[in-house]
Amino acid sequence: MTDEPTLAVADLRTHFSTRAGLVRAVDGVSFTLGRGEVLGLVGESGSGKSITGFSILGLVDPPGRIVGGSVRYQGRELVGLAPRDLRTLRGREVAMVFQDPMATLNPMLTVGRQMDLVLAAHGRVRGPERRARCLDLMTRLGIPAPESRLAAYPHELSGGLRQRVAIAVALLNRPSVVIADEPTTALDVSIQAQILREMIGLVRETGVAMVWISHDLAVVSSIAQRVAVMYAGRIVEDGPVRTVLRAPRHPYTRGLLDSLPARARPGEPLAPIPGTTPSLLARPEGCAFHPRCARATELCRTLDPERRESDGHGFRCHHPLEAA
By residue range, what is the domain housing residue 306? Predict the structure, then answer.
């Protein structure tokens, strides 16, 4: 028995060299993920969540590149791995569910043909068994009439069904790690709730480790055991989901929670976080959140806070909120 985590990300840094300057999209991200564990990666748009997911799978295209850090899958280093080895790994050991299912599905091929090609590419399942594997997974994901869906083209399916198919494609080869990049954002609430229930059941049944990327704290609270809050390319708070969401230490996490509609009383306006996320071309000195923070002092404007931790609850803040 080994204590090696399924996925270990350490000080990951992904930069984009542009004409306007250097964009530090991922700036020192670290976390670990064990078997059967779901980590929620949350934050506003532009915080670096999706680029973190793409970096783990080596899917960052020029002018972006990983400039530092480590991504270890079951002890094997993925940063710097040869492209051929990475292609063998993707979909088989580590898979990704994209926000837009049409980024996964080919509009020119039937669903069944695409799923068959995914299984054939990694050679894990023989021809006669592939259809049975596809039908079984589609049934478990709540796709009605799976036989007819295999013969359908993506445009013939609803948005919810396309997303279920995209999830099924990611899970076909029974990977150990799945990166889910806001897979339910564009769906209505009822379909979103169904997919979340199905994903929770699959995680428990198969033991897959999952990074669930989202801007929706309510969704993350229902599926994840741990949460990491990103801002300006960095994780500013992380820990057990109940601890972080019930007693946040970082003002940014508090702001995200206070802006949720469910927390407002009827007739009262929401409490948004003032200002906008900073440009990663001109990251503020000191704490990146200080221009939007009511607790900011001169220390926050000049010195970048180090990470502190208490009982597995980590945060980067000079003036953290009181612990509950």
Answer: 7-93+175-315
pLDDT over 50 (residue 274): yes
Residue 258 burial (CB < 10 Å; 0-12/13-18/19+)?
A: middle
pLDDT digits 0-9 by tens, 234-255 = 999 999 999 999 999 999 999 9
Instruction: Write the single-letter amino acid at 110.
Output: T
Say if residue 191 is in the same domain as residue 286: yes
What is the DSSP secondary structure assignment for residue 312, as one 8-state letter?
T
Structural domain includes residue 321: no
Which residue has 């379909």 as its token pair? 191
What is the pTM assigned to this prediction?
0.91
- Rounded Cα distance, 193 and 187, in Å: 10
Helix (H) or strand (E) holding 148: helix 146-150
Element (H, E) at 220: helix 217-223
Structure tokens belonging to residue 90: 């993707």
- Counted residue by residue, the chain has a size of 324
Domain boundary residue among 119, 146, 174?
Answer: 174
Packing angle of the helix pair 159-171, 111-122 (nearest 10 deg): 20
- The burial of 253, by beta-carbon neighbours within 10 Å (0-12 exposed, 13-18 middle, 19 or more buried), is given as buried
The residue written with tokens 């270990």 in the block is 8
